[in-house]
Predict the structure.
Amino acid sequence: MKDLYPSRKNMTPEILKRKDPVIHTDRSKDNMSPLTKEQLDFYEQNGFLQIKDFFSKKEVTNLQNGIFELQESHKNSTSEKVIREPDSDDIRSIFHVHEDDNYFKDVANDTRILDIVNHLLGSDVYVHQSRINYKPGFKGKEFDWHSDFETWHVEDGMPRMRAVSVSIALSDNYTFNGPLMMIPGSQNYYVSCVGETPEENYKDSLKKQKFGVPDHDSLRWLTEKCGGISVPTGRAGSITLFESNTMHGSTSNMTPYPRNNLFMVFNSVENQLVEPFSGGKERPEYIAVRDGVKSLVSSN
């Protein structure tokens, strides 16, 4: 398959224009969308959309109980699905929760979410990746600037930009507790990064990413070209949908206020993984679903 988005192959970075639509359903069918025209316009222009209070208070409580029960039950786990901070044994992320936990499997099949992502991607979808991210007060570490698609393309073999991430806030997001930061409009530009991908790079990158991280000049160009940086804040229960190529990151959390979220990536069934474009080995199934692809059916 032709590599439409080459990266980590050249000695100098390059910025390429996007070759795929942001919304894959014909915009003439906006009246069939669970989102309003204004919401669709915002997502298409900015590469992300926040919907406040998407989940009820009771649902939020259940979700919070669920992530902390998993954290406690995995405290001493040696599973590769449990990612710990680079300088401590604190749990940073737990992967593959949409299959390993019945409660979070139901969340992945929630019709309210599926209706939205099906419309944005113009097809049935499956979960490419799921995880819980924990960022406790005072010691939660940062996530460097990156485009998810760059990693999924190079290391997993995702052919096209036809995936959307859903971040469910399970603690209140402030501007100061390490929230998600995004460059609006950056989904239209692909930063081709430098640096050959090491074997089993995921073992280090899930703790701290070093390859597939854009250079400072490209980030500066994106922020100037696209108009700065946006920080969607809001109460627990809000969701943020963002396009696979939207440049994003988050700072460390120096405050007493935790910032936890459930993160699920929905990919079109028409955009299933091929061989990694890096030429390297496939990453494990718990990071990039390849063998367990199945169209999601609403559980509601």
